[in-house]
Amino acid sequence: MQPKAEEQAVLKVKQGEIMLGQVRFSCLPIPAPTLVLLKADGQPANLEQALNPDELSKAALLADPVFGNTLPEEARYSIQKMEVNLFRGGRLVKTWSLPSGELDLSQTSLQSGDGVQVKVIQAVRLNGQGEEMSLTLANKYLSFFVL
Questions:
Q1: Cα separation, 105 vs 23, whole angstroms
Q2: pTM, rounded to two decimals
Q3: Are residues 52 and 22 part of one domain?
């Protein structure tokens, strides 16, 4: 279960049956990950520029840097389903679903100037025990033009 911002946790210290003390502290919410498209070299693609689709490898969710460095075992994310839309001349040409974040556009008939929109349908956070935690993304869309 993910704590809400207003929740508090209590840490109690005992030695046997003797209470040595307790401390209350607020729980911070887990920061939302950032959706990015990764190139084959693992670097995020610059969506401000037209992209060569052959250079793209997958969509990924990157953890907030502080959260990822502080609790790396809690900051693992997985895209379980996404949808890709191909636009040409402002019209939707094709839509297909992918069962993960892997993005293989080599089987499509992309042309220079085409627009591609990636939408994450389902994603999860894996906690330190490997359990899947539901995840709501603030931004589930990425778009780019084909070079």
A1: 53
A2: 0.83
A3: no
